[in-house]
């Protein structure tokens, strides 16, 4: 009876209040910085992809989907900033809370999915050169991108529970078989969306690097570019997604053991690393540049002063070209991503 009362008491406690107001004030200012930097950066990237680079002509549909996911993530930040400045880990309004959870986890899932697809594309191009690259065939079809977004929907729905964001699951409610199964399913979805793609990413990176070592000098330029692509994805993954997943696992373990003081620290570490994960929208443009120098050159020619363009734009012979226009000026830019 006392155990049941204890669980009932736990379920009534508001675990979504920040345990340290100063911490959440600092995190809100960090998110303000991410928003101030991320909004113009992603708007400019979106503009270049649509009006200068013409992504649909340059077989960069998957890259464009990452741009869309990043932009939607940036659009969610002001709401999170408002909550953190009021020492709240989530909205007290159920509709706002569920909408935010849906948007944040859908966009993060989309970023992960398309980053992994790009890495697999480089893997097949380098390690299995000469064989039919199924990823290269699929990325020409916009329907595949729509299918990826639709596939992510059922994986995102389990996170649309207000207790999820605060890890308020196992041990917080009177345990029933239903609660135990649904809570476990939510956590499994969360962790598999990060750890399985990370294993795939590490495998692709190791195979590409090994392939690079076996190649002759004349073939190494293209392979080095492939290594930079997958390494840039590794950096994004290791910085943005992996730490918060590890922190969540630690937090859940601490809560199951009912260690109150350690829990307060674990909560702050987890929320801090979640804020760090939002830098994904700032780091992804590095991936665009490494994946496609045509995009990089289009971006430089659009936003950099004229005197810097000749120094920054790389010209490589033997590559295809794309023509982009800006007003009355026409530029022919090399395309490396094939």
TrEMBL record:
<dbReference type="Pfam" id="PF00001">
    <property type="entry name" value="7tm_1"/>
</dbReference>
<dbReference type="GO" id="GO:0004930">
    <property type="term" value="F:G protein-coupled receptor activity"/>
</dbReference>
<comment type="similarity">
    <text>Belongs to the G-protein coupled receptor 1 family.</text>
</comment>
<dbReference type="InterPro" id="IPR051893">
    <property type="entry name" value="HCARs"/>
</dbReference>
<dbReference type="InterPro" id="IPR017452">
    <property type="entry name" value="GPCR_Rhodpsn_7TM"/>
</dbReference>
<keyword id="KW-0297">G-protein coupled receptor</keyword>
<feature type="transmembrane region" description="Helical">
    <location>
        <begin position="26"/>
        <end position="50"/>
    </location>
</feature>
<feature type="transmembrane region" description="Helical">
    <location>
        <begin position="227"/>
        <end position="251"/>
    </location>
</feature>
<keyword id="KW-0472">Membrane</keyword>
<keyword id="KW-0807">Transducer</keyword>
<keyword id="KW-0812">Transmembrane</keyword>
<feature type="transmembrane region" description="Helical">
    <location>
        <begin position="188"/>
        <end position="206"/>
    </location>
</feature>
<dbReference type="GO" id="GO:0016020">
    <property type="term" value="C:membrane"/>
</dbReference>
<feature type="transmembrane region" description="Helical">
    <location>
        <begin position="62"/>
        <end position="81"/>
    </location>
</feature>
<feature type="transmembrane region" description="Helical">
    <location>
        <begin position="144"/>
        <end position="161"/>
    </location>
</feature>
<feature type="domain" description="G-protein coupled receptors family 1 profile">
    <location>
        <begin position="41"/>
        <end position="288"/>
    </location>
</feature>
<feature type="transmembrane region" description="Helical">
    <location>
        <begin position="101"/>
        <end position="124"/>
    </location>
</feature>
<keyword id="KW-0675">Receptor</keyword>
<keyword id="KW-1133">Transmembrane helix</keyword>
<protein>
    <recommendedName>
        <fullName>G-protein coupled receptors family 1 profile domain-containing protein</fullName>
    </recommendedName>
</protein>
<dbReference type="InterPro" id="IPR000276">
    <property type="entry name" value="GPCR_Rhodpsn"/>
</dbReference>
